[in-house]
Design brief:
40% of the residues lie in helices and 27% in strands. It is built from nine helices and twelve strands.
């Protein structure tokens, strides 16, 4: 970093004083970020990205840009094939994909950090939305697992005896699953959390636990069985996804991008 350790310590101390929070926990094994420190790092990375964009615009001139918020699962499923067609036909437009969980993306869209975002329905009166797809929450496990009974559905009651690997609750599949567990008074044994569905699939394939995530994850290369999750009331566990944008503040050409994406995704899903 081209500076001394004491200088860094003084800078951090000044920042802690200015913000009124502790950013690091210092111990014999070194310093670890506090919860407030993690939040500051997240915002610092966003600010750093904005500064990079600012410098680029100042040196190369501003360019038409669409900031699209999407979870990694969406980016790797219907978004990738759509952009492979759309970008070559619109070389004058730069696409910046902002990856985050659907819950956080709704906040980032409201704060103006995205022009559009793939979020769950409903979106509220502030936004317009075009439906994309319905995501179902499923349980994944290798062949020969005790859950590999030939049944196509499963409830949380059947999952609780098994070790589980699941999404973080910032991602809707993880949140929906945990809400159903809490409503049923069940306490699942979660051994690993991840934001990436393919990571959970790999762990399930390795035998660490049953994976729980949405069915939009690209499962190519994995040899796993699956059962669709249902609530105790017999309803399919899942949620509807849409691409949304600000009702009043979004230019027509960005709205057209969102509409094109929605039509493409619905066609891919047979809608």
């Amino acid at each position: 970093m081209f500076t001394s350790q004491p200088a860094i310590s003084r800078s951090i101390a000044r920042l802690e004083h200015e913000l009124g929070v502790s950013l690091l926990e210092r111990g014999p094994r070194g310093a670890q970020l506090t919860a407030a420190g993690v939040t500051v790092v997240e915002h610092a990375r966003r600010i750093g990205g904005m500064m990079t964009t600012l410098r680029k615009d100042l040196t190369e001139g501003p360019r038409a840009r669409i900031r699209l918020g999407a979870a990694a699962t969406a980016a790797g499923s219907y978004l990738a094939p759509f952009l492979a067609q759309w970008i070559p036909a619109h070389l004058d437009v730069e696409i910046e994909v902002i990856e985050d969980g659907a819950v956080k993306l709704r906040e980032r869209l409201a704060d103006g950090e995205c022009d559009l975002a793939i979020v769950p329905l409903p979106v509220g009166e502030t936004f317009e939305a075009e439906p994309l797809a319905h995501l179902s929450v499923c349980a994944y496990f290798p062949a020969g697992h005790p859950l590999d009974t030939g049944d196509t559905t499963i409830t949380v009651d059947e999952l609780v005896p098994h070790s589980l690997v699941v999404n973080n609750t910032g991602f809707l599949a993880g949140r929906v699953f945990m809400q159903e567990c809490e409503a049923s008074g069940l306490f699942p044994r979660i051994v690993y959390r991840s934001n990436v569905g393919q990571t959970l699939a790999a762990l399930a394939e390795a035998g660490l636990g049953v994976a729980v995530f949405g069915d939009t994850v690209d499962m190519r290369g994995f040899d796993l069985r699956s059962r669709q999750m249902y609530t105790r009331e017999g309803q399919r566990m899942g949620f509807a996804l849409a691409v949304a944008w600000h009702r009043r503040e979004t230019p027509d050409w960005i709205r057209a991008f969102g509409t094109d994406l929605a039509v493409f995704a619905r066609t891919q899903n047979g809608g």
